[in-house]
Write a structure and sequence with these properties.
By secondary structure, the protein is mostly beta strands. It folds into 2 domains: 96 residues, 2-Layer Sandwich (Alpha-Beta Plaits); 46 residues, SH3 type barrels. 12% of the residues lie in helices and 43% in strands.
Length: 164
């Protein structure tokens, strides 16, 4: 059997601890991350957070590795199973996510951006607004149209500030 990807449910705010401990046991992990901006009091704070909070992918060869020890790993709540057997995640899903991430696991902006696409602004003062792509250039600058208070406003954003 070859290594397949499975899902591990994590204890609250324990993704770093779980990744370290699973790695020390010889398991390969994958935790896709994204930039998130939230307003706190009068400031906007941007943090790197897991794309799927509370969950992580782990690569296991069920025929060779003692996968039962994952459940007792520090930071791990449980390996997602059905009838006592870990539930495999389709390889295409994990591969697609990995191809969209940089070496640290952070989600990269989409490469196939077209005029008229709806995008979500991820960071800055306009975080969480939905906008329409008006135009873009090769220097990673994008102009989007936002509807704010009944008026359409043209705003320039960086490519890494948006998500399709």
């Amino acid at each position: 059997m070859t290594n397949n990807w499975y899902i591990v449910q994590l204890k609250r705010n324990s993704h770093r601890v779980a990744a370290r401990n699973l790695g020390q046991q010889g398991f390969k992990t994958f935790l896709p991350l994204q930039s998130c901006t939230r307003k706190s009091q009068d400031k906007f704070l941007t943090n790197i957070e897991p794309l799927f909070p509370g969950y992580m992918f782990v690569s296991i060869d069920l025929g060779k590795e003692p996968w039962h020890k994952i459940n007792s790993t520090l930071g791990v709540s449980r390996l997602i199973c059905q009838d006592g057997i870990p539930m495999k995640v389709p390889e295409a899903i994990v591969s697609a996510l990995m191809s969209r991430c940089d070496s640290s696991g952070k989600l990269l902006p989409p490469e196939s951006l077209a005029i008229g696409d709806s995008v979500k602004i991820l960071s800055g003062a306009l975080a969480n607004f939905i906008a329409t792509v008006e135009t873009f250039d090769t220097k990673q600058r994008i102009w989007v149209l936002l509807e704010i208070m009944g008026q359409v406003t043209r705003v320039q954003v960086a490519l890494d500030q948006i998500k399709l």
